[in-house]
Amino acid sequence: MFESFFLNHAMEFDYDEEHKLHYYELYQKFHDMFERQLDLFCDSVGMTQPEFMKRARDATTHDPKAKHYMDILLSSVEYDTFVKLMRLMRPVAQQRLMAAESEAKSEAKFDSPSKAAAKEVADGPGSPKRAESKNPDRDEDELKTEKGSK
Fold first, then answer.
1. DSSP 3-state assignment of 126?
2. Is the pTM above the cut of 0.85?
3. What pLDDT is recorded for position 112?
4. How far apart are CA 65 and CA 71, in angstroms?
């Protein structure tokens, strides 16, 4: 969910020093999403956010690895870190976008001839569509004679 958010919006972030107002709007959306997920998690384990934060702080004092991950988690909800993360995700988003565009072009290139070939097979001799278009009152000899007289 968070990765999708980053990838969907990372291309909107450039490397200019001055931040655009739009960055803060996206940050607020991200922060709201983060808060909702934290609420859902806390509800699922039967604790409040303040209880969770206290336990997280306690865990970080005893386990350096937990401290490292909590620092990353908590800093991601700070605006400056959010912008850095978005800029870090930009090349990944750009690569995925280029791959998707390339795939779409390949599909379009091969899709049209496939559809045309399928239609030709479907409308070919003996197809129901061709059979319907023939006049049932005329036989093959009449059709041959008509072609010969043209």
1. coil
2. no
3. 55
4. 10
